[in-house]
Protein backbone atom coordinates (compact mmCIF):
# COMPACT_ATOMS: atom_id res chain seq x y z
CA UNK A 1 0.00 0.00 0.00
CA UNK A 2 1.24 3.48 -0.93
CA UNK A 3 0.71 6.18 1.70
CA UNK A 4 0.16 9.83 0.77
CA UNK A 5 0.10 12.79 3.18
CA UNK A 6 -1.90 15.80 1.98
CA UNK A 7 -0.63 18.84 3.87
CA UNK A 8 -2.61 22.02 3.40
CA UNK A 9 -4.97 24.69 4.62
CA UNK A 10 -8.76 25.17 4.55
CA UNK A 11 -8.98 23.90 0.98
CA UNK A 12 -7.52 20.60 2.18
CA UNK A 13 -9.65 20.70 5.34
CA UNK A 14 -12.66 21.14 3.04
CA UNK A 15 -14.17 24.54 3.78
CA UNK A 16 -17.45 24.99 1.91
CA UNK A 17 -17.80 28.57 0.59
CA UNK A 18 -21.51 28.06 -0.01
CA UNK A 19 -22.57 26.95 3.48
CA UNK A 20 -19.59 28.15 5.52
CA UNK A 21 -18.99 24.75 7.11
CA UNK A 22 -17.07 21.62 6.10
CA UNK A 23 -17.68 19.41 3.09
CA UNK A 24 -18.24 15.74 3.96
CA UNK A 25 -15.27 13.40 3.42
CA UNK A 26 -16.51 12.04 0.09
CA UNK A 27 -16.70 15.57 -1.38
CA UNK A 28 -13.30 16.85 -0.24
CA UNK A 29 -10.53 16.45 -2.81
CA UNK A 30 -8.62 14.19 -0.47
CA UNK A 31 -11.61 11.88 -0.13
CA UNK A 32 -12.24 11.87 -3.87
CA UNK A 33 -8.54 11.16 -4.44
CA UNK A 34 -8.78 8.15 -2.14
CA UNK A 35 -11.78 6.86 -4.09
CA UNK A 36 -10.01 7.30 -7.43
CA UNK A 37 -6.75 5.69 -6.34
CA UNK A 38 -8.40 2.72 -4.68
CA UNK A 39 -7.50 0.35 -1.89
CA UNK A 40 -3.82 0.06 -2.79
CA UNK A 41 -3.38 3.65 -1.61
CA UNK A 42 -3.94 5.36 1.73
CA UNK A 43 -4.60 9.11 1.63
CA UNK A 44 -4.03 11.01 4.88
CA UNK A 45 -5.80 14.37 5.09
CA UNK A 46 -3.95 17.03 7.09
CA UNK A 47 -5.67 20.36 6.52
CA UNK A 48 -5.86 23.31 8.90
CA UNK A 49 -7.87 26.49 8.36
CA UNK A 50 -5.55 29.48 8.11
CA UNK A 51 -2.34 27.46 7.81
CA UNK A 52 0.57 29.36 6.25
CA UNK A 53 3.80 28.01 4.82
CA UNK A 54 6.24 29.13 7.53
CA UNK A 55 4.80 32.30 9.05
CA UNK A 56 3.49 32.68 12.59
CA UNK A 57 0.13 34.45 12.55
CA UNK A 58 0.09 37.26 15.15
CA UNK A 59 -3.71 37.22 15.27
CA UNK A 60 -4.81 33.61 14.78
CA UNK A 61 -1.75 31.84 16.20
CA UNK A 62 -0.53 28.21 15.74
CA UNK A 63 -0.84 28.42 11.93
CA UNK A 64 2.73 27.94 10.73
CA UNK A 65 3.03 24.93 8.44
CA UNK A 66 6.70 24.65 9.34
CA UNK A 67 6.01 24.18 13.06
CA UNK A 68 3.78 21.14 12.65
CA UNK A 69 5.32 19.50 9.59
CA UNK A 70 8.12 17.57 11.31
CA UNK A 71 5.93 15.93 13.99
CA UNK A 72 3.29 15.28 11.32
CA UNK A 73 5.81 13.43 9.15
CA UNK A 74 7.00 11.44 12.14
CA UNK A 75 3.52 10.45 13.28
CA UNK A 76 2.47 9.15 9.85
CA UNK A 77 5.70 7.56 8.62
CA UNK A 78 6.48 5.71 6.44
CA UNK A 79 5.15 7.97 3.70
CA UNK A 80 5.60 7.44 -0.02
CA UNK A 81 4.48 10.90 -1.07
CA UNK A 82 3.79 14.26 0.58
CA UNK A 83 1.48 16.64 -1.29
CA UNK A 84 1.86 20.25 -0.14
CA UNK A 85 -0.74 22.88 -1.06
CA UNK A 86 -0.10 26.02 0.96
CA UNK A 87 0.41 29.70 0.26
CA UNK A 88 -3.06 31.21 -0.01
CA UNK A 89 -3.06 32.38 3.63
CA UNK A 90 0.40 33.87 3.16
CA UNK A 91 -1.37 36.37 0.87
CA UNK A 92 -3.10 38.01 3.84
CA UNK A 93 -2.25 41.72 4.02
CA UNK A 94 -0.96 41.36 7.59
CA UNK A 95 2.07 39.39 6.34
CA UNK A 96 3.10 41.90 3.62
CA UNK A 97 4.78 39.17 1.56
CA UNK A 98 5.73 39.05 -2.10
CA UNK A 99 4.83 36.08 -4.30
CA UNK A 100 8.55 35.27 -4.34
CA UNK A 101 8.72 35.08 -0.53
CA UNK A 102 5.60 32.93 -0.32
CA UNK A 103 7.15 30.46 -2.75
CA UNK A 104 10.37 30.45 -0.74
CA UNK A 105 8.30 29.57 2.34
CA UNK A 106 6.87 26.61 0.45
CA UNK A 107 10.41 25.66 -0.43
CA UNK A 108 11.33 25.48 3.26
CA UNK A 109 8.62 22.85 3.69
CA UNK A 110 9.86 20.84 0.73
CA UNK A 111 13.36 20.99 2.18
CA UNK A 112 12.08 19.62 5.50
CA UNK A 113 10.53 16.66 3.71
CA UNK A 114 13.69 16.14 1.66
CA UNK A 115 15.82 16.01 4.80
CA UNK A 116 13.48 13.74 6.73
CA UNK A 117 13.63 9.98 7.09
CA UNK A 118 9.86 9.71 6.90
CA UNK A 119 9.78 7.62 3.75
CA UNK A 120 10.17 3.87 3.26
CA UNK A 121 13.37 2.39 4.73
CA UNK A 122 14.26 5.67 6.43
CA UNK A 123 14.58 7.56 3.15
CA UNK A 124 12.77 10.84 2.43
CA UNK A 125 9.33 10.63 0.81
CA UNK A 126 8.77 12.13 -2.59
CA UNK A 127 7.10 15.54 -2.62
CA UNK A 128 4.49 17.03 -4.92
CA UNK A 129 4.32 20.83 -4.53
CA UNK A 130 1.04 22.39 -5.63
CA UNK A 131 0.71 26.05 -6.53
CA UNK A 132 -2.68 27.15 -5.16
CA UNK A 133 -5.21 28.59 -7.61
CA UNK A 134 -5.34 32.37 -8.00
CA UNK A 135 -7.60 34.37 -5.74
CA UNK A 136 -11.00 35.22 -7.28
CA UNK A 137 -13.57 37.87 -6.33
CA UNK A 138 -13.15 38.69 -2.65
CA UNK A 139 -16.20 39.44 -0.52
CA UNK A 140 -16.03 39.07 3.27
CA UNK A 141 -12.26 38.50 3.02
CA UNK A 142 -11.62 41.63 0.94
CA UNK A 143 -9.76 43.61 3.61
CA UNK A 144 -7.96 40.61 5.06
CA UNK A 145 -6.62 39.71 1.60
CA UNK A 146 -6.17 43.21 0.21
CA UNK A 147 -3.88 43.04 -2.83
CA UNK A 148 -3.89 39.24 -2.86
CA UNK A 149 -5.49 38.65 -6.26
CA UNK A 150 -2.67 40.23 -8.25
CA UNK A 151 0.07 38.53 -6.23
CA UNK A 152 -1.66 35.15 -6.38
CA UNK A 153 -1.36 35.10 -10.18
CA UNK A 154 2.44 35.13 -9.83
CA UNK A 155 2.67 32.21 -7.40
CA UNK A 156 2.77 29.37 -9.94
CA UNK A 157 5.87 30.72 -11.69
CA UNK A 158 7.78 31.02 -8.43
CA UNK A 159 6.54 27.66 -7.12
CA UNK A 160 7.76 25.99 -10.30
CA UNK A 161 11.21 27.48 -9.74
CA UNK A 162 11.25 26.31 -6.12
CA UNK A 163 10.25 22.78 -7.12
CA UNK A 164 13.07 22.67 -9.65
CA UNK A 165 15.55 23.93 -7.08
CA UNK A 166 14.58 21.34 -4.47
CA UNK A 167 14.14 18.50 -6.93
CA UNK A 168 10.47 17.79 -6.21
CA UNK A 169 7.41 17.30 -8.40
CA UNK A 170 5.24 20.31 -9.26
CA UNK A 171 1.67 20.92 -10.36
CA UNK A 172 -0.12 24.21 -11.02
CA UNK A 173 -3.66 23.74 -9.70
CA UNK A 174 -4.73 26.94 -11.45
CA UNK A 175 -4.59 24.99 -14.71
CA UNK A 176 -7.55 22.84 -13.65
CA UNK A 177 -9.48 24.63 -10.86
CA UNK A 178 -10.67 28.11 -9.89
CA UNK A 179 -11.37 29.69 -6.52
CA UNK A 180 -15.01 30.46 -5.79
CA UNK A 181 -16.33 33.95 -6.50
CA UNK A 182 -18.45 33.54 -3.37
CA UNK A 183 -15.46 34.40 -1.18
CA UNK A 184 -12.46 34.44 -3.48
CA UNK A 185 -10.26 31.82 -1.81
CA UNK A 186 -12.14 28.55 -1.27
CA UNK A 187 -13.11 25.75 -3.63
CA UNK A 188 -16.64 24.72 -4.46
CA UNK A 189 -17.54 21.03 -4.56
CA UNK A 190 -17.01 20.59 -8.29
CA UNK A 191 -13.51 22.04 -8.06
CA UNK A 192 -12.59 19.51 -5.36
CA UNK A 193 -13.45 16.72 -7.78
CA UNK A 194 -11.54 18.34 -10.65
CA UNK A 195 -8.48 18.70 -8.45
CA UNK A 196 -8.66 15.10 -7.28
CA UNK A 197 -9.02 13.81 -10.83
CA UNK A 198 -5.96 15.77 -11.94
CA UNK A 199 -3.91 14.71 -8.94
CA UNK A 200 -4.81 11.04 -9.30
CA UNK A 201 -2.95 11.05 -12.60
CA UNK A 202 -0.01 12.91 -11.08
CA UNK A 203 0.20 10.48 -8.15
CA UNK A 204 0.16 7.41 -10.39
CA UNK A 205 2.84 8.95 -12.59
CA UNK A 206 5.06 9.54 -9.54
CA UNK A 207 4.51 6.31 -7.61
CA UNK A 208 3.84 3.74 -10.31
CA UNK A 209 6.67 4.46 -12.70
Strand-helix topology:
Elements: E1 2-8, H1 10-13, H2 29-37, E2 41-47, H3 65-76, E3 81-85, H4 99-114, E4 126-131, H5 148-152, H6 155-166, E5 169-172, H7 189-207
Parallel strand pairs: 1-2, 1-3, 3-4, 4-5
Q: Which outline best applies?
A: globular
Measured as a percent range, the helix fraction is 25-40%
**Can you tell me the residue ranges where pLDDT is under 50 for at least 5 consecutive residues?**
none
The CATH class turns out to be Alpha Beta
Order the strands across the largest sheet as they lie in space. Answer: 2-1-3-4-5
**CATH homologous superfamily caption:** SGNH hydrolase
CATH architectural category: 3-Layer(aba) Sandwich
- Number of contiguous helices: 7
What value does the Rg take, in angstroms?
Answer: 16 Å
| Mean pLDDT over the residues | 97
Looking at the chains present, what oligomeric state does this protein adopt?
Answer: single chain
Number of strands: 5
What's the helix-strand series?
Answer: EHHEHEHEHHEH
How many strands, which pairing sense, and closed or not: the largest β-sheet? 5 strands, parallel
First-residue to last-residue Cα separation: 15 Å
The third-level CATH topology is: Rossmann fold
Strand content: 5-15%
Q: Structural class of the helix and strand makeup?
A: alpha/beta
Amino acid sequence: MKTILCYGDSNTWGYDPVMGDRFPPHVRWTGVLQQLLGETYRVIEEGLNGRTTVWDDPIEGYKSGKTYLIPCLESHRPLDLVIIMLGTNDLKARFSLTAYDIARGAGVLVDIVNKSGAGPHGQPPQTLLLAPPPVAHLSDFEEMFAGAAEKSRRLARHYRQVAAEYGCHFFDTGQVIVSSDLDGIHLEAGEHRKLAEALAGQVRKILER
